[in-house]
Design a protein that fits this description.
Length: about 90
């Protein structure tokens, strides 16, 4: 679908929905194609989301990675023993 910028401004929610469903949306400015709307992610339903998160957690556990530094102490090298900047 090709649509002018002016018209697209009035229909943005609908155009975003169409782009998310896979339709190619091209915005026209001064008679030339200027912008293409594309979805940045595929929406997952809650079951797919839980399954994906669970799979990531299983893969991380399988790698048995060492614990990293404590985020609360990660900037300690910037300060002396009195808590003042070095």
């Amino acid at each position: 679908m090709r649509i002018s910028m002016t018209e697209a401004a009035r229909q943005l929610p609908e155009l975003a929905r169409l782009a998310d469903q896979g339709e190619e949306i091209v915005l026209i400015q001064d008679g030339y194609p200027d912008v293409r709307l594309t979805p940045t992610r595929k929406a997952l339903n809650p079951e797919e989301w839980d399954k994906a998160i669970g799979e990531i957690q299983r893969q991380v556990k399988k790698k048995n990675l060492p614990l990293g530094p404590d985020a609360a102490r990660s900037q300690d090298f910037l300060y002396d023993e009195h808590g003042l900047p070095k």
